Amino acid sequence: MGELPKRKSNRLVNYDYAQNGAYFVTICTKGKESVFGNIDDGKMTLSNVGLIADSELQKAASHFNDVVINNYVVMPNHVHLIIVIMGAGTGMPAGEASGASTITVGNIIRGYKSGVSRITGFSPWQKSFHDHVIRNQEDYNRIAEYIENNTARWAEDRYY
Fold first, then answer.
1. How far apart are CA 78 and CA 80, in angstroms?
2. Domains along the chain?
3. Helix axis angle, 48-60 relative to 105-120, nearest 10°?
4. Residues 95, 55, 118, 11: is their CA dihedral positive or negative?
5. All residues at 6 or more sequence positions from 59 whose CB lies less than 8 Å from its CB, including other chains
6. Would you state the pLDDT for residue 88?
7. Per-residue model confidence as pLDDT tens digits over 16-39
8. In angstroms, rounded to a whole number, what is the distance separating the alpha carbons of residues 103 and 23?
9. Using an 8 Å Cβ cutoff, are 6 and 77 in contact?
10. 71: nearest Cα among 85, 57, 51
11. β-strand 43-46 against 37-40: which pairing, if any?
12. Separation of alpha carbons 69 and 34, rounded Å
């Protein structure tokens, strides 16, 4: 039997995803299925699964100290968000009295995806996620505008 092909990592090699910074993340559904709802006339109507995905995203940052989710949008078959990690990514999960844990983009996304899967009773997610390290304010502003206008530009979206 031949060797299985090696999967290319979506992460930057040798980059510390626990360091302070802003990260643009896209999480897609399995097979790009539109399980989160539909867009009509530029407006997103969330399905029951979409409502859960939205609700869990609103709570995701509260599970960690020093993490903020400033911008996000739940689309029919993917989610875009900006995660901001402050405090060098090291801190206790919110509500814990002792024992530090490393906060990384991967840990935040893993917690979010598992929360949605647990509540819905199935996993709507594809493996992994896409990320972009936001390098400056101009980059941040461009991405925040993209997220804000994503539903209006659905027909132009590469996930459409």
1. 7
2. 21-152 (3.30.70.1290)
3. 150
4. negative
5. 115
6. 58
7. 666 788 999 999 999 999 999 999
8. 13
9. no
10. 57
11. antiparallel
12. 23
Of 82, 87, 90, the C-alpha closest to 144 is: 82
C-alpha distance from residue 25 to each of 8, 96, 103, 150, 154 (Å): 17, 26, 15, 14, 18
- In order, the DSSP letters of the chain are -PPPPPPPPSSPTT--TTSSEEEEEEEEBGGG---SEEEETTEEEE-HHHHHHHHHHHHHGGGBTTEEEEEEEE-SSEEEEEEEE-GGGEEPBTT--S--EE--HHHHHHHHHHHHHHHHTS--BPSS-EEEEE-SHHHHHHHHHHHHTTTTTGGG-TT-
Q: pLDDT for 57-108, tens place per residue?
A: 999 888 888 899 989 999 999 999 999 998 754 554 554 444 456 788 999 9
110-152 pLDDT tens trace = 999 999 999 999 999 999 999 999 999 999 999 999 999 999 8
Mean pLDDT over each residue of the chain, to the nearest integer: 85
- Enter the tokens of residue 51: 């409502």
